[in-house]
Backbone:
């Protein structure tokens, strides 16, 4: 039967694809849990088990400070970006704001602009502000780089809500802010959550800004930067500890992803598709 | 242009022919600007202003210490003629193939096979295929350094299937480094493309497939007449995402090869970093920054234009 064969082939392809997508991550997980003498076999089967590598990475690589610093930066960026994006997205979607179209047009640049395009003057500016090697050196630019995505995200979502919602509120005499916080925001909560997750993901995973803006202060270095230094210094000499460090950096996000995977995937895929 | 405005239909929005959003008030709402202002301040200070400065800096030769010299377009001429920056720009296009074209082609090919199948366990496959998207570029780079290591799984796998003579230090050899780093990008992006296209294909009405089959279309014609046009928006979104990622790639390249061996995997982002923060050649760094930003904007615009909706929406 043609369709039965197609079904088997399709599922086979999906299984192979899934294995390829997950294998490198699983391999470093197994490597991080293996004793130096008992490396996993080439195909990833564990031969031994230990947590020593994590202890070594934790103390030698300063990952306690790095993970705390990453979490602080990401949470600050998420809170501010989401708040500002909700306000601006609401105004651009529902209020007759002058120059609204032009503002959206300019923000469009921010959606695709690579950090590399601004990193040189940005570094000079942060240095002028005296903020190099502080958490603010990452938080402030990350907000600026995230709000364009956030505003498009929220205004698209607000636009999709039924008109009757804010109209009913305005008949009841609610101010703009009341309409937003009491009527529209509760209805947009899933979109706000998804936006928060994605901004968290991008901020947590950033490498270039951290490398340029907080290069010399171990206390505020973010987790990916610490991992890069840790892996670079050791030159693969202690692969177990390096792998453990990589697992430490990835773990918070992977845990969030496994719990909230639907929001993550829908967020990464659908939000921009609606445009 | 205050007070009463013209009818909303005559206002142009930057996003094509779509209708403007429903509005609550007839008059311009100046207070509404206050809602946008805070976000706009962050965006202007930390994105727009540095972007303009990049353009301005690119017209000077400056080492950050002595007085800058006005050189006009000379930096651009230098960047386009010097071998290493030319190599970096060429590599960018190679990366577009590995990061964007290949994943999209893989995604489309498999979606074509699976378009009419009821997939069991789709949630599980989605979750697994999406894992590379969640990992930081640094984690990806570290993981693939082990994958490609001389005693790593890739070479072991080749040995198992009798191709052991192919084994090499993939990231360290002149001939293999660029495709090896590029393939990392294919790995990061193929799952995203598959999930995106599969989801899109599920939304194509079944009648279209039936109609095609009644017309006697085989699987290949069906793919080109039904599946491919039905996925236009998904393809366009995937290509924007993947080409942007390919062009701005820094973390994966920096943490695997740093542009080496030699200049085989050099990228504009690597030159920008080295010029600005190692050799203090701000003019060159800014020039490449501007070219890179322009390239991203042009490629994005091109993709959006080529895959635009030809018929009016809704």
Residues:
């Amino acid at each position: 039967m043609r369709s039965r064969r197609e079904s088997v082939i399709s599922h086979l392809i999906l299984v192979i694809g899934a294995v390829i997508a997950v294998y490198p991550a699983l391999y470093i997980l197994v490597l991080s849990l293996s004793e130096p003498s008992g490396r996993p076999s080439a195909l990833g089967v564990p031969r031994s088990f230990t947590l020593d590598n994590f202890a070594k990475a934790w103390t030698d690589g300063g990952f306690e400070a790095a993970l705390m610093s990453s979490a602080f930066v990401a949470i600050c960026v998420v809170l501010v970006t989401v708040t500002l994006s909700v306000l601006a997205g609401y105004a651009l979607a529902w209020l007759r704001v002058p120059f609204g179209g032009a503002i959206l047009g300019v923000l469009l640049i921010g959606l695709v602009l690579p950090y590399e395009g601004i990193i040189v003057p940005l570094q000079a500016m942060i240095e002028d502000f005296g903020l190099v090697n502080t958490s603010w050196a990452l938080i402030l630019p990350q907000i600026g780089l995230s709000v364009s995505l956030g505003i498009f995200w929220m205004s698209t979502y607000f636009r999709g809500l039924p008109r009757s919602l804010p109209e009913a509120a305005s008949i009841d005499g609610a101010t703009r802010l009341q309409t937003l916080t009491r009527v529209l925001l509760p209805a947009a909560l899933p979109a706000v959550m998804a936006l928060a997750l994605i901004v968290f993901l991008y901020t947590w995973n950033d490498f270039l800004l951290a490398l340029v803006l907080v290069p010399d202060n171990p206390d505020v270095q973010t987790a990916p930067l610490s991992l890069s230094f840790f892996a670079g210094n050791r030159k693969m000499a202690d692969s177990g500890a390096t792998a453990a460090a990589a697992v430490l950096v990835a773990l918070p996000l992977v845990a969030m992803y496994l719990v909230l995977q639907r929001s993550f995937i829908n967020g990464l895929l659908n939000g921009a598709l609606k445009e | 242009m205050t007070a009463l405005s013209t009818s909303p239909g005559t206002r142009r929005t930057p996003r094509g022919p779509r209708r403007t959003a429903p509005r609550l008030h007839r008059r311009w709402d100046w207070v509404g600007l206050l809602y946008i202002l805070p976000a706009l301040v962050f965006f202007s200070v930390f994105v727009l202003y540095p972007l303009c400065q990049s353009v301005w800096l690119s017209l000077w030769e400056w080492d950050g210490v002595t007085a800058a010299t006005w050189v006009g377009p000379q930096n651009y001429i230098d960047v386009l003629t010097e071998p290493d920056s030319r190599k970096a720009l060429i590599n960018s296009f190679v990366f577009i193939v590995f990061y964007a074209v290949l994943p999209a082609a893989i995604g489309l090919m498999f979606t074509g096979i699976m378009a009419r199948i009821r997939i069991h366990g789709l949630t599980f496959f989605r979750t697994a295929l999406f894992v590379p998207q969640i990992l930081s570029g640094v984690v990806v780079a570290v993981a693939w350094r082990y994958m490609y290591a001389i005693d790593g799984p890739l070479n072991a796998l080749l040995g198992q299937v009798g191709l052991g003579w192919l084994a090499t230090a993939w990231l360290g050899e002149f001939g293999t480094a660029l495709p090896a780093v590029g393939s990392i990008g294919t790995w990061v992006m193929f799952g995203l493309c598959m999930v995106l296209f599969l989801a899109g294909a599920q939304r194509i009405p079944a009648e279209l497939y039936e109609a095609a089959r009644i017309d006697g279309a085989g699987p290949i014609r069906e793919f080109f007449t039904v599946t491919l046009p039905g996925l236009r928006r998904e393809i366009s979104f995937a290509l924007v995402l993947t080409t942007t990622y390919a062009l701005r790639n820094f973390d994966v390249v920096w943490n695997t090869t740093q542009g080496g061996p030699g200049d085989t995997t050099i990228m504009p982002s690597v030159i920008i970093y080295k010029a600005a923060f190692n050799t203090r050649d701000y003019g060159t760094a800014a020039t490449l920054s501007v070219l890179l930003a322009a390239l991203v904007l042009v490629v994005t615009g091109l993709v959006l234009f080529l895959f635009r909706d030809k018929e009016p929406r809704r």
About this structure: Chain B touches chain A through 116 residues (CB under 8 Å). The longest strand of chain B covers residues 60-61. The beta strands of chain B are 60-61, 69-70.
